Amino acid sequence: MDVLELYRKTGALLEGHFLLRSGKHSPLFLQTAALLQHPLYAEAVGAALAAPFEDEEIDFVIGPAIGGVVLSFVVARALGARALFAEKAAAGGMTIRPGLEVNPGDRFIAVEDVVTTGASLKKALDAAVRAGGVPVGAAAVIDRSSGAARFGVPFEALARLEAPVYDPPSCPLCKAGVPLKEV
Ligand SMILES: [Zn+2]
User: Fold this and answer.
1) For residues 37 and 93, what is the distance between their CA atoms, to the nearest angstrom?
2) Mind listing the pLDDT tens digit for each residue in 31-56?
3) Are 50 and 56 in contact (CB under 8 A)?
4) CATH number, domain at 148?
5) pTM: predicted TM-score of the whole model, two decimal places
6) Residues 58, 38: Cα–Cα separation, whole Å
């Protein structure tokens, strides 16, 4: 699957000059929601992410809200597993949404749309481990971490993207006078 082509086609990959939430600037911005709004594409992405794990016994899939909710659902559907999600909790961590249960020893994978540092995916994975789950793997649609993201379990991505990220003072797009868009 050419997932980047799917991003382009659905307007989920923007090119220009963007102010990221981290405060840094980038010529590229991915808004996976624009892709996942199409159920058939979402389903195809879910099946592709699930593929490396289809020989494993997986009880549930977990993703960090909001980006990981639809994704968890489509991957879980492909694996015949349950779909859970984690949401932000106090002290910067994440906790499993009340009403969603983890049974001790449940095997799971953690999924996320775009991994940049991997922090949210790791927090969702940790929340499931604290609840008694056993992590089998992690998966992202796009890995932007240049290989830096590690989760202590096999990590699969449908595409790896080397997109530069600049500190504002050294941003060549600022220097070139390209208008900055907040995202
Ligand atoms: Zn800039």
Assistant:
1) 27
2) 999 999 999 999 999 999 999 999 99
3) no
4) 3.40.50.2020
5) 0.90
6) 25
Q: Are 27 and 89 in contact (CB under 8 A)?
A: no
> Which domain range does residue 134 map to?
3-182
Q: Tell how far the Cα of 16 is from the centroid of ligand 1, in angstroms.
A: 10
Residue type, 162: E
CA–centroid distance, 172 to ligand 1, in Å, is 6
Distance of CA 177 from the midpoint of ligand 1 (Å):
8
- For residue 158, the CA-to-ligand 1 centroid distance in Å is 28
Q: Which residues of 145-172 are buried (b: 16+ CB within 10 A; e: fewer)?
A: beeebebeeebbbbbebeeebbeeeebe
> Residues with Cβ < 8 Å from 175, sequence gap 6 or more?
none
Q: Which amino acid is at 157?
A: A
Number of domains in the chain: 1
- At 155-168, the pLDDT tens digits run 999 999 887 889 99
User: In 40-172, at which residue ranges do the beta strands (DSSP E only) sit?
Assistant: 60-64, 82-88, 94-96, 107-115, 134-143, 155-160
